[in-house]
Write a structure and sequence with these properties.
- There is one protein chain.
- 39% of the residues are buried.
- This protein is α+β, with helices and mostly antiparallel strands.
- The protein folds into two domains: 114 residues, no CATH class; 73 residues, no CATH class.
- The chain is globular and about 55 Å long.
- Bound molecules: FE2/S2 (inorganic) cluster.
- FE2/S2 (inorganic) cluster (FES) binds next to helix 1.
């Protein structure tokens, strides 16, 4: 997937044992997971939007009193923000589920437990039955709703990724059904630079840890879940 260059250089810098430094007037808003009548996540809804800022620092340790922004608490609590995430390309390490019309690529270590992939039998089973138009539609919907990009679905014939269209933006995930705040949802290929100066693979969707507990920093691994 290709991403357009923009005037304001949108970027996220991971600080060593500190916050995410966000630059480039990136829109920031609450993004809430809504569930259907059976309790399965089925929809994202945008909530409060924060005023646009040229630069801001988002809390990564989970302990700021001024969330989502950093208030310096990370130094008092000796936050260990060591980055351990794989730097291999997603497609090179994702497991494939190949169905008649679709291929589902899955890198489980990126799971943010948003649970959109559980509905209607789950994205894997739906992919396996993707010769049925309804299963195909649901598989695509579920993969595209995955905020972390753990799941990426491709058209089997063309090999092309089927991706949701986003603007460069950051979502603060809220998950009221699970009773937790989720990760930082980074959309549309915003570069994320590690503390040691390496830019992670540019992706349309990724989720960054904001509870401080992930074992796959800087990315979310679902550790915020109860
Ligand atoms: S990263 Fe600074 S207070 Fe959390």
């Amino acid at each position: 997937m290709k991403f357009m260059a923009e005037n304001h250089e949108a970027k996220i810098k991971v600080c060593k044992n500190g916050p995410y430094l966000v630059s480039g007037r990136i829109p920031l808003a609450i993004q809430t997971i809504y569930v259907n009548s059976e309790g399965y996540p089925s929809e994202w809804r945008e909530g409060e939007k924060y005023p646009l800022q040229e630069n801001c620092a988002l809390c990564r340790c989970g302990q700021s009193k001024n969330k989502p922004f950093c208030d310096g608490t990370h130094t008092k609590v000796n936050f260990d923000g060591t980055e351990t995430a794989s730097r291999k390309k997603f497609m090179e390490r994702a497991e494939k589920t190949s169905g008649p019309a679709l291929i589902l690529n899955d890198a489980e270590d990126l799971c943010a437990v948003a649970r959109f992939c559980d509905r209607a039998g789950g994205a894997w089973e739906l992919t396996e039955h993707s010769d049925d138009p309804n299963s195909e539609k649901n598989a695509i919907e579920e993969a595209c709703n995955c905020p972390s990009g753990r799941l990426v679905i491709c058209d089997k014939k063309t090999g092309k990724e089927i991706e949701p269209v986003f603007e460069k933006s950051i979502g603060l995930v809220e998950d009221p059904h699970a009773g937790v705040s989720g990760p930082i949802w980074v959309r549309c290929g915003i570069p994320i630079e590690s503390a040691d100066g390496v830019v992670y693979e540019l992706r349309n969707r990724v989720t960054l840890c904001r509870c401080g507990k992930s074992s796959n920093k800087p990315f979310c691994d679902g550790s915020h879940m109860p």
